[in-house]
Structure formats: C-alpha cells, structure tokens
Amino acid sequence: MRVMRLMKVRLVNVAPLLLVPVLALLGACSSTSSSPSGGGSARPSVDGAPNYQMDVSTIPDAVPTPHTGPYKASPYRVLGKSYSPMQDGRNYREQGEASWYGTKFHGQATANGEEYDLYGMTAAHKTLPLPTYVQVTNLDNQRKVIVRVNDRGPFYSTRIIDLSYAAAKKLGYAERGVARVLVEGIDPVAWQQQNDPSYLVSARSRSEAPSVVVSTPPAEVAPALTTGATDRGEYYLQVGAFASDLAAQQLRQRLLSTLDAGVTVTPVQHSSGTLHRVRVGPVVSENEARRLIEQLRLANVADATLVRSN
C-alpha cells in the first residue's frame, strides 16, 4: 500500500489532486532542501525513509536538559482547527497511535525554529509546550526512547505524536508506519537528579510551572578571571556530569555545534561511581564566561556553572 504524508502525517488512499490546495495553504511546497542523500537534491514530493541506512542503535536518545528560555505554548490554528498548548508537559501521559516523518521534511524548519533532522531524536506534538522531553514506549514490543518535542503535528489524523525516522526505527515500527505507543512527559530536573548525582541546577518542585533558569559566574570565582588565575588552575563552564558516557558525549556534540569554544568530557570517580563531566573552556575572562553562558541560554542547550579545573 502506498503511503503519502501531509503535515508530517501518513495519509492512505488520498487522491493526489486533493493535496494541492492544502499543501499550498500550509506553505509546504518548498522545492529544495538539504537531503540525507546529499548533493542538494530536490525535496521529495512524497515522504519516506532515506535512501541510505544508518545503524540507529548508535544514535543516543535525547538527554533531558532543563530549558533556559521561554516555552512556545501559544494558541494557534491549523486546517480550521484551534489548538491550545499545555503550559507544562512534565506530567503528560497518553496512549495512542504514533507515526513518523522523514525525507520530505529533512532540513526544514520545525515549529520551534530548529532544523529537522530525520536522524535526530525529536518529535512533533499538537499541544505539548516546545521544547518538551518525553519517553515513548512501543506497546507492541516494549521498546522505549526519549525524544525532544520541537515541532507541531500530526494534524490530519487522530495520532498523538509524530516521531523522527530514527526514533521510529529504534522503536521498531518505521517499516509499518504506525505503532501503538505510550507517551510520558519528563521533568528534566528530576531526570538529571536521578541520573547525575552532581547535577548543578537547583531543583524545582514538580508542581511548579516551567521557569527560566539563569546562571552567572559565582561571585567568589568571577573576580579571579579578571585578574588572571593561572596559578590557581584554569576555569571552565561545567554544563553537566553524567553516569552515562553516551549521554555526556551527546551533550558534547550539541555544544560543539553551538559554541565557538572547546568542549571536553572527563571521567571522574564519585562515591556513587564514575561520572562523566562535560565542560566548556578553558575560560580566560569574566566577559568570555558571560558570553558563553548567554550563548548557551539562547540556544536552549544547557545551564552552566563556572568551576576550577582542580
């Protein structure tokens, strides 16, 4: 059975002529896009899997990271229907059908203003605030993934979530197209506290609405940057410490694509086991520290605290 997609939703047996006015209405008729197959080829008119296959088992899940900017949760209207997004998705829990989207939207802007990567661990949802982290369980095989919701959809169906191709592949339903799933919201602070004993962001109550977390260099440390600190050890911005080296490496890759600074992962022994610290730097001045912290905040990547190397 041939399957077509509209607004990141699989459509079955829909007459092609009926798609034309809707696609035009939604502004989904862009002719070019970056493609997994490379070469700047035209964007496919029908969505599907990439023409090359990556081992998705090597792709780490999204790492729940506290958001440091405003959430996108304003009411909007699509296809004649109005949607009122939730203001807090941490306690969200719903069972339903999931679909996925791939090559047709690869390289296109998501509702969150980011670039869709069919090999990224992301998802589209109609009413969760953007961004939100969720765990998705395939109820047919009990496989689980964690994804970052950064897009809107699916709209033309009763399906509750649209996953990236990679996430669907990891869950084992990319070939089938749809799957019965359980979607559960994640509190990034609680997740970090459970998975990262030295997590540096102050905990928030689960009952609180999401808020902005702003970090500045500690008062007792920042002055040293203005006077030089070579005899006291170098300074770094620490953005996390993980029990999982895979999670630390994933965060490092995100930071390298965001910052114009070095990012390192260093294993250290802790009473509860080995932790993998993710640090940016070295930082040579207070101004540089504040500049890097602002870059992190604007990119919604991570919170940071200034620390010494020793």
TrEMBL record:
Primary localisation category: membrane
PROSITE patterns named in the record: PROKAR_LIPOPROTEIN, SPOR
Pfam families: DPBB_1, SPOR
Annotated signal peptide: 1-26
Subcellular location as annotated: Cell membrane
Membrane topology classification: Lipid-anchor
EC numbers for this chain: 4.2.2.-
Stretches assigned to coiled coil: none
Biological process annotations from GO: cell wall organization; peptidoglycan metabolic process
Disordered: annotated segments: 32-74
Molecular function, one GO term: peptidoglycan binding
Ranges where the SPOR domain occurs: 229-309
Keywords: Cell membrane, Cell wall biogenesis/degradation, Lipoprotein, Lyase, Membrane, Palmitate, Signal
GO terms under cellular component: cell outer membrane; plasma membrane
Entry function: Lytic transglycosylase with a strong preference for naked glycan strands that lack stem peptides.
Family the entry assigns: Belongs to the RlpA family.
Protein name: Endolytic peptidoglycan transglycosylase RlpA
Lineage: Bacteria, Pseudomonadati, Pseudomonadota, Gammaproteobacteria, Pseudomonadales
Encoding gene per record: rlpA
